[in-house]
Amino acid sequence: MKVENPPHHPIKPLAEFAPLTTFRTASTESRPRLEIDGDRVRNGLAQLVLTLVKLLHELLERQAIQRMDSGSLTDEEIERLGLTLMKQAEELERLRELFDLKEEDLNLDLGPLGRLL
Fold first, then answer.
1. Contacts of 23 (CB under 8 A, 6+ apart)
2. Domain annotation covers residue 91
3. Which structural domain range is residue 50 located in?
4. Mean pLDDT over residues 96-112, rounded?
5. Does residue 61 lie within any of the structural domains?
6. Fewer CB within 10 Å of terminal CB in the chain, N or C?
7. pLDDT for 4-32, tens place per residue?
């Protein structure tokens, strides 16, 4: 049995990631230095974290609806759960605006699987 080598996929050079990083060589140094745009990294990290929080929020909402429909919650529990989810949604909205993100920025494209949210 002959085993074929997998097709060679070249590693992308770091220069392709230029929007977040730049390279420069200082005149006194022989090695290139990596400079990272801190604001873009911070905003990208905020976008990722808020996307995950939004996903968890939506999962909690769906679970709450299932529990309400099944009748396993008291009226008091339903009220507390509703208020908690509402406050969580308001805080998520506040943070999204703080980082100047649009609603669609918190929805990842998963390729053939479609949109995350």
1. 14, 15, 32, 33, 34, 35
2. yes
3. 35-103
4. 85
5. yes
6. N
7. 544 444 444 444 444 554 555 555 556 77
Assess contact for 61 and 85: CB atoms under 8 A: yes
Q: Are 47 and 106 in contact (CB under 8 A)?
A: yes
**DSSP H helical ranges for 1-117:** 38-70, 75-98
State how far the Cα of 106 lies from the Cα of 100, in Å rounded to an integer.
Answer: 11
Residue 3 and residue 32: Cα distance in Å, rounded? 40
β-pair type (21-25, 32-36): antiparallel
The token duo for 57 is 């929020």
| Residue 57 forms part of a structural domain | yes
49 Ramachandran zone, left/alpha/beta (phi>0; psi -120 to 50): alpha
pTM: 0.62
Structural domain includes residue 22: no
